[in-house]
């Protein structure tokens, strides 16, 4: 699993690369710029066209996916006024802290003490939570 620090570092590396490319492009004459743009459009034969880069629009975020999952399966027992086991999942900050600690996935996949108590969530729902964590626990 990627940590939030790793994701932040990755984003900074991409930002630096983007800035360097922008500087290189801005120093080119028009014909050189056209040539560079043509060269950039050539596909890399080793690149998997189905793979997605980090930070794409398809990233699972708290607001677009995770909040609804937690609201439906967890918040009834883990909220601001009723924090069973001392766990609150009613907002992004609390959900992020529990997910980042590893406790969220551990309990959602536990066979001896599953959360929710009615039984483990379906695999696609758990995968959404795993994707959220791996994508860097994004809020929006």
Notes on the protein architecture:
By secondary structure, this protein is an all-alpha fold. The protein has two domains: 4-40; 62-134, no CATH class. It has helices at residues 4-26, 30-40, 62-73, 92-101, 103-108, 123-134. Helix 3 packs across helix 6 (123-134). The longest helix has 23 residues, at 4-26. It is globular.
Write the layout of secondary structure elements.
Elements: H1 4-26, H2 30-40, H3 62-73, H4 92-101, H5 103-108, H6 123-134
Helix pairs in contact: 3-6
- Please give the count of helices: 6
Rg result: 21 Å
Please, how many domains? 2
Average pLDDT, all residues: 76
Q: Based on the structure, what is the oligomeric state of the protein chains?
A: single chain
Name the poorly predicted regions.
Answer: 5-9, 18-34, 40-45, 49-55
Overall body shape: globular
What structural category characterises the helix and strand content? mainly alpha
Q: Write down how many β-strands occur, each being a DSSP E stretch of 2 or more residues.
A: 0
Order of helices and strands: HHHHHH
Strand composition percent: under 5%
Helix content: 40-55%
Amino-to-carboxy terminus distance = 20 Å
**How many strands, which pairing sense, and closed or not: the largest β-sheet?**
none
Short description:
This protein is mainly α.
What structural keywords apply?
single chain; 140 residues; 53% helix
């Amino acid at each position: 699993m990627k940590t939030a620090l790793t994701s932040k570092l990755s984003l900074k590396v991409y930002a630096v690369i983007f800035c360097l490319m922008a500087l290189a492009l801005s120093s080119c004459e028009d014909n050189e710029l056209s040539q560079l743009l043509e060269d950039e459009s050539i596909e890399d034969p080793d690149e998997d066209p189905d793979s997605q880069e980090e930070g794409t629009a398809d990233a699972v975020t708290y607001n677009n996916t995770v909040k609804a999952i937690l609201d439906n399966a967890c918040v009834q027992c883990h909220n601001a006024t009723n924090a069973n086991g001392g766990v609150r999942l009613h907002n992004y900050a609390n959900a992020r802290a529990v997910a980042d600690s590893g406790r969220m996935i551990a309990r959602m996949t536990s066979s001896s003490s599953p959360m929710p108590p009615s039984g483990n969530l379906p695999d696609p729902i758990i995968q959404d939570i795993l994707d959220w964590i791996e994508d860097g626990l994004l809020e929006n």
